[in-house]
């Protein structure tokens, strides 16, 4: 029989082997990734995703909603020098060690900053985003469904999120993908799991153009996925 100490050591070793490594989120080299957190620039013109996502929505979504998450995250961290040294991902993966007084703010506004920073990069003007890589295709094939069935699964997931939240494809270090949803601005992190593709289904993401027709927005999203970015992120997370 192994002692508790040995068992803990073995668990720690196994976690070290399988834990997924953080991948730099921001393409912009001027965005440091820690305090003071900054709003990354959109990697395309605000109307570049039209007609699938309109420029006015992008302008408000990025310039107002995302900026507010950044500002409120910085406000929450202003009296916590130790937390200011941490990257956004470290903060969000370690929410249990964030003082209770600001934990909710870090979770919501830090999560909002992370999710939107990933979201902008995962979009590209229609026709310019490329195709899923062979590695991604084979990861999806492991789920045992056709490409059409998988698209339908994601559609049902995204249209079925009640209230405000996100629909995700997550990935493990071993390259296993999974569909899941989160509420509010929660990020689907796990010790061996990171978000690969996220779709914002808060009303602020689509209401100006699509009003209550979330289904049309979810269908339109498929036309503007930046597979080149997603392929590179998959490779980095599974290497
Ligand atoms: Fe949003």
Q: What does this protein look like?
A:
The protein contains 10 helices and 3 strands. With 239 residues, it is mainly alpha-helical. The chain has a domain at 134-238: minor pseudopilin epsh fold (3-Layer(bab) Sandwich), CATH 3.55.40. It has a 3-stranded antiparallel β-sheet with strand order 2-1-3. Strand 1 (165-171) and strand 2 (177-183) form a beta hairpin. It is globular, with a radius of gyration of 18 Å. The two termini are 35 Å apart. It binds fe (ii) ion. The site of fe (ii) ion has 7 residues, from helix 2.
Helix/strand layout:
Layout: H1 4-18, H2 55-77, H3 81-84, H4 88-93, H5 100-121, H6 134-141, H7 147-160, E1 165-171, E2 177-183, E3 194-200, H8 207-210, H9 214-221, H10 227-238
Antiparallel strand pairs: 1-2, 1-3
The structure holds fe (ii) ion.
- At the fold tier of CATH, the topology name of the domain at 134-238 is minor pseudopilin epsh fold
Query: Strands of the largest sheet, in order across it?
Result: 2-1-3
Total of helices: 10
Mean pLDDT: 92
What is the level 1 CATH name of the domain at 134-238?
Answer: Alpha Beta
Count the beta strands.
Answer: 3
What's the story with the biggest beta sheet? Answer: 3 strands, antiparallel
CATH H level of the domain at 134-238: which superfamily?
Iron/manganese superoxide dismutase, C-terminal domain
CATH architectural type of the domain at 134-238: 3-Layer(bab) Sandwich
- Alpha-beta classification: mainly alpha
Note the overall shape.
globular
Q: What Rg is obtained from the alpha carbons, in whole angstroms?
A: 18 Å
Order of helices and strands: HHHHHHHEEEHHH
Note the beta-strand portion. Answer: 5-15%
Ligands (ions, cofactors included): fe (ii) ion
